[in-house]
């Protein structure tokens, strides 16, 4: 991007910018960016800027609202259209389908797409769980309107983490808690979150030759991202366990790494909750 | 008081750095570290050394705000830490102004010893830093919500920088 045509460089650039490989979007003609308010606000806040000089080189959307002006609790209870999610997810699945060799590869790909989402959602969950964040101030005038956001507790033990998954993450994603949370009887490192009607599987028809595939691997990726982000390294996978009543019933198997369990024992000994 | 603020990723990569001075009690917001020019790398060094302490205490308390966790006596620096759910550390090194500094010295006589610019360990200072950290945390979550921000990459948004500078001016 640094190699923008010289004709597009604005002559009144600050001296500090002239020599640096500045990657401002404003080096391009303003007509190239014609987006809606929401997407352009995201574009601006993602614009790389090498220095702290807040000169006129930064492009704001026409409302002058960036992503930093939005209140984080604003969309707390808002719901997205299910059909648009189904459409988008269908595209993700068919995109992956064209590029994979086997079912494992397929599930890995979906898992990787969910993983960064989990990493990002964890901090949002904790922010919203904090006291003061529940204040329903919809004005996005000042960034201090919700000051208590940072007081939420980080999960240190397995149980708080797992309840966070089923009672906080699930309602955030699907507006309902997960159906059940179980511990494996054979392996203490394995936990299972059970979802009778996973949203991802609802509108995806899996062909017979791929009946091992569970597209809920995407949700497993989100779960894995949350656990990993919190410092509980694990592998999460989705398994079809359809019954007559719940044909889409899916078990998310979470297998924690050994050192997580060692730490868990140590924390239990020290009485950390 | 002079401040050095840095956001450190779970893999110990700095994501965002800011050096500033106090704006309280007539401060001009310019950092004046005692160790002069060497402060630029010494501060980074001191803060990264404090990461070991963070790893010791982070599993003992579920709070995000870990208070003052370390200090470095030769420059009278104190390090406060705020840790997010994804183990991203917000580290703030704060160093009270040197008494020998002529401009600061003449002013310090009129300031009570508990005021934010002078006393790095007073409850008032701690509360001010907590407020600062909380505000930065909100900005951090907003950065995360940006679909164009990739986890683990430096934060380059000038709006973010502007907001952090604003938070520093307001609380510290």
UniProtKB/TrEMBL annotation, chain A:
Transport recorded as keyword: yes
Composition bias of kind Low complexity appears in: 30-41
Q: Where this protein primarily resides, as one coarse class?
A: endoplasmic reticulum
Q: Which InterPro entries match?
A: NO_sig/Golgi_transp_ligand-bd, TRAPP-I_su5, TRAPP_component
Q: Which UniProt keywords apply?
A: Endoplasmic reticulum, ER-Golgi transport, Golgi apparatus, Transport
What processes does the entry annotate via GO biological process terms?
endoplasmic reticulum to Golgi vesicle-mediated transport
Region listing for Disordered, in residue ranges: 1-57
Locations listed in the record:
Endoplasmic reticulum; Golgi apparatus, cis-Golgi network
Q: Its GO CC terms?
A: endoplasmic reticulum; TRAPPI protein complex; TRAPPII protein complex; TRAPPIII protein complex
On subunit structure and binding partners, the annotation says: Part of the multisubunit TRAPP (transport protein particle) complex.
Q: Report the protein's function.
A: Plays a key role in the late stages of endoplasmic reticulum to Golgi traffic.
Q: Which family does it belong to?
A: Belongs to the TRAPP small subunits family. BET3 subfamily.
This chain's protein is named Trafficking protein particle complex subunit
Starting at the broadest rank, the lineage of the source organism is: Eukaryota, Fungi, Dikarya, Ascomycota, Pezizomycotina
UniProtKB/TrEMBL annotation, chain B:
| InterPro entries xrefs | Longin-like_dom_sf, Sedlin
Where is the sequence biased in composition, kind Polar residues?
116-125
What Gene3D superfamilies has UniProt attached to this entry? 3.30.450.70
Provide the GO biological process annotations.
endoplasmic reticulum to Golgi vesicle-mediated transport
Task: Enumerate the SUPFAM superfamilies for this protein.
Answer: SNARE-like (SSF64356)
Query: Per the record, what is one GO cellular component?
Result: cytoplasm
Q: What is this protein called?
A: Trafficking protein particle complex subunit 2
**Pfam families, A to Z:** Sedlin_N
Composition bias (Low complexity) maps to 104-115
- Region entry Disordered, spans: 104-125
């Amino acid at each position: 991007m640094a190699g923008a045509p010289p004709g597009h460089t604005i002559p009144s650039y600050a001296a500090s910018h002239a020599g640096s490989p500045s990657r401002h979007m404003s080096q391009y003609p303003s007509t190239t960016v014609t987006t809606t308010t929401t997407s352009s606000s995201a574009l601006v806040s993602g614009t790389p800027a090498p220095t702290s000089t807040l000169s006129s080189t930064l492009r704001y959307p026409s409302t002058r609202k960036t992503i930093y002006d939005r209140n984080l609790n604003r969309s707390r209870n808002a719901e997205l259209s299910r059909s648009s999610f189904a459409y988008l997810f269908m595209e993700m699945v068919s995109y992956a389908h064209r590029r994979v060799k086997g079912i494992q590869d397929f599930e890995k790909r979906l898992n990787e797409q969910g993983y960064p989402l989990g990493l990002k959602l964890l901090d949002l969950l904790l922010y919203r769980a904090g006291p003061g964040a529940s204040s329903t101030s919809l004005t996005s005038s000042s960034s201090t309107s919700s000051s208590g956001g940072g007081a939420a507790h980080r999960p240190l033990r397995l149980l708080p983490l797992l309840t966070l998954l089923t009672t906080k993450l699930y309602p955030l994603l699907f507006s309902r808690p997960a159906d059940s949370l179980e511990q494996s009887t054979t392996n203490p490192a394995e936990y299972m979150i059970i979802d009778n009607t996973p949203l991802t599987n609802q509108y995806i028809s899996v062909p017979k030759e791929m009946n091992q595939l569970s597209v809920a691997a995407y949700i497993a990726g989100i779960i894995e991202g949350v656990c990993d982000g919190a410092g509980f390294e694990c592998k999460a996978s989705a398994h079809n366990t359809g019954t007559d009543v719940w044909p889409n019933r899916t078990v998310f198997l979470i297998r924690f790494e050994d050192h997580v369990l060692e730490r868990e024992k140590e924390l239990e000994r020290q009485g950390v909750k | 008081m002079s401040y050095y603020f840095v956001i450190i990723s779970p893999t110990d990569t700095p994501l965002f750095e800011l050096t500033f001075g106090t704006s309280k009690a007539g401060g001009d917001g310019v950092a004046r570290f005692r160790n002069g020019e060497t402060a630029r790398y010494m501060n980074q060094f001191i803060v990264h050394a404090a990461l070991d302490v963070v790893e010791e205490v982070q599993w003992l308390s579920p709070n995000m705000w870990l208070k003052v966790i370390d200090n470095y006596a030769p420059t009278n620096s104190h390090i406060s830490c705020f840790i997010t759910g994804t183990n991203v550390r917000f580290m703030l090194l704060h160093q009270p102004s040197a008494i020998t500094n002529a401009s600061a010295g003449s002013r310090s006589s009129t300031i009570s010893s508990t005021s934010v610019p002078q006393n790095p360990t007073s409850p008032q200072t701690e509360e001010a830093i907590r407020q600062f950290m909380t505000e930065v945390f909100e900005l951090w979550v907003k950065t995360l919500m940006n679909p164009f921000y990739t986890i683990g990459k430096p934060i380059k948004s000038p709006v973010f920088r502007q907001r952090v500078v604003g938070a520093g001016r307001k609380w510290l």
